[in-house]
User: Which sequence fits this backbone?
């Protein structure tokens, strides 16, 4: 078969699919607490070794299998009964003990974040950040540092192969990462206390390198927390209460907009939605959101739910978007030690709603959820919808199947009016499907099926060739006028590329093709001078 025909058949057999990103499917936080989004509705997975008061990070492979997790750092043994700083492996064993002398701080809010090392399979960077309480016990501050982890070490359980300390020493609390526009590299941002600037580092195959700094306006508070939108286009700085445009190609911020929660003096949590449309904030007074697509973002503030909590009962709120499209919220109580886990359902949609206390951690006090690169949760739809197709082109007499794999309890409606999980089509066109779950709004996907008879035949310069009848039954005739370059070979292939027959003789004008199944076929016609023409034919 010619390369041209192989390429044609390859594109005919393509199906539309979207590869899920499952790197954030397992969360480890608090004191051996966790969530597992691979497990369906039973999310609670309190069986890990995590020990942290605030910041933490975890990472899975593309299939959602936990690789490792960390609290980002700690204190020397015996100091304040705090962990020394650990990296734990998938079996919850210690991969690496920082011994209180490496990594970040035990009480750093964004103590750590994990990104793959670009163009280096099975290698990861664990970035760590110091705490504002650093040096209270005489342990030297370490600022912004990182570990390189090779997952091929220790029989696949991973091991630290490099540690670089104090890229910036005078920094604390703030650490966030965003994927580069090229889909391979990353940006990491910290807050430099010495310069009162946000420092940006590029993470490429060449390593971790300083990229640029951006000054903070003089009339705002020092940053306490930074988050990026999943699409990499926005960056919000908490405490400074500034929303920036972020250029994920250059690592530059611009156009600061001041937006504040209700009662901004109270410590609050914040999170973007998966579709990057909304920025949510919550504290003891209210859960609110801003519309990132509005012409007046501050004026778009919408109170999702007013809250009635005693001001001395809660010290902190933490929000983190999740793979299932919801945002999970920690509500720590200090009067009677207890942490409540709440959830903002359907965060992508207009109908987002808060469900309080879906799980309790009595007797516990911790105030952090894992820190992720939020692009792994990006999802433009209210509901994740993917159309799978037998092929993306269709010919006369063909039938293609289009299907969606979704919850059977959801309502499904195709643009054809059909309501099942799959439909059969016989003509080209654009087909769409809308899925409604009765709560979160709706998700939609579409696919274009093109006519296979268009755009494939190639005319040879100086003469023309036609095949008939269309469609054929038991023979195919060839009308060809160039006697100086006669046809010497005709091959007939099935639509999957299988060779059906080959005829070699001088000046071919007809081939017999009895007893073929109905459907689409390809004729590969070769002349004496080596010219090759592809023709599509249909058996009725």
Assistant:
């Amino acid at each position: 078969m010619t390369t041209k025909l192989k390429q044609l058949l390859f594109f005919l057999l393509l199906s539309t699919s979207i590869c899920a990103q499952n790197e954030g499917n397992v969360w480890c936080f608090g004191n051996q607490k966790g969530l597992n989004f691979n497990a369906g509705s039973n999310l609670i997975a309190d069986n890990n070794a995590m020990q942290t008061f605030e910041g933490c990070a975890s990472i899975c492979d593309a299939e959602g299998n936990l690789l490792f997790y960390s609290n980002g750092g700690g204190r020397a043994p015996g100091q304040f009964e705090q962990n020394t700083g650990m990296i734990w492996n998938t079996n919850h064993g210690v991969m690496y003990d920082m011994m209180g002398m490496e990594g970040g701080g035990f009480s750093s809010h964004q103590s750590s974040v994990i990104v793959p090392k670009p163009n280096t399979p099975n290698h990861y960077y664990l970035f760590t950040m110091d705490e504002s309480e650093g040096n209270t016990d005489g342990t030297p501050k370490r600022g912004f540092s990182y570990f390189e982890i090779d997952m091929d070490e220790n029989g696949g359980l991973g091991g630290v192969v490099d540690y670089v300390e104090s890229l910036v020493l005078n920094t604390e609390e703030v650490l966030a990462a965003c994927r580069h526009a090229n889909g391979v590299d990353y940006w990491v941002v910290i807050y430099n206390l010495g310069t009162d600037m946000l420092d940006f580092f590029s993470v490429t195959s060449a390593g971790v390198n300083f990229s640029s700094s951006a000054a903070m306006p003089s009339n705002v508070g020092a940053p306490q927390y930074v988050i990026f939108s999943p699409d990499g286009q926005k960056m919000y700085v908490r405490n400074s209460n500034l929303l920036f445009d972020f250029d994920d190609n250059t690592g530059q911020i611009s156009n600061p907009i001041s937006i504040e929660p209700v009662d901004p003096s109270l410590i609050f949590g914040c999170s973007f939605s998966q579709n990057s449309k909304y920025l949510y904030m919550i504290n003891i007074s209210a859960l609110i959101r801003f519309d990132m697509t509005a012409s007046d973002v501050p004026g778009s503030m919408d109170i999702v739910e007013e809250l009635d909590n005693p001001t001395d009962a809660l010290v902190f709120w933490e929000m983190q978007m999740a793979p299932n499209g919801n945002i999970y919220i920690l509500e720590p109580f200090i009067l009677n030690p207890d942490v409540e886990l709440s959830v903002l359902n359907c965060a992508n949609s207009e109908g987002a709603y808060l469900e309080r206390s879906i799980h309790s951690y009595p007797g516990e006090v911790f105030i952090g959820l894992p820190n992720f690169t939020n692009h792994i949760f990006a999802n433009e739809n209210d509901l994740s919808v993917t159309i799978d197709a037998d092929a993306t082109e269709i010919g006369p007499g063909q039938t293609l199947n289009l299907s969606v794999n979704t919850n059977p309890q959801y309502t499904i409606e195709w643009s054809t009016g059909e309501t099942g999980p799959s439909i059969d089509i016989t003509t080209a066109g654009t087909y769409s499907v809308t899925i409604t779950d009765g709560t979160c709004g709706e998700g939609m996907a579409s696919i274009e099926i093109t006519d296979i008879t268009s755009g494939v035949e190639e005319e040879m310069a100086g003469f023309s060739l036609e095949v008939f009848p269309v469609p054929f039954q038991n023979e195919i005739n060839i009308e060809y006028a160039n006697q100086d370059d006669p046809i010497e070979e005709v091959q007939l292939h099935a639509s999957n590329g299988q060779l059906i027959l080959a005829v070699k003789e001088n000046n071919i004008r007809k081939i017999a093709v009895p007893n073929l199944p109905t459907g689409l076929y390809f004729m590969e016609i070769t002349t004496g001078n080596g010219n090759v023409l592809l023709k599509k034919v249909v058996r009725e």
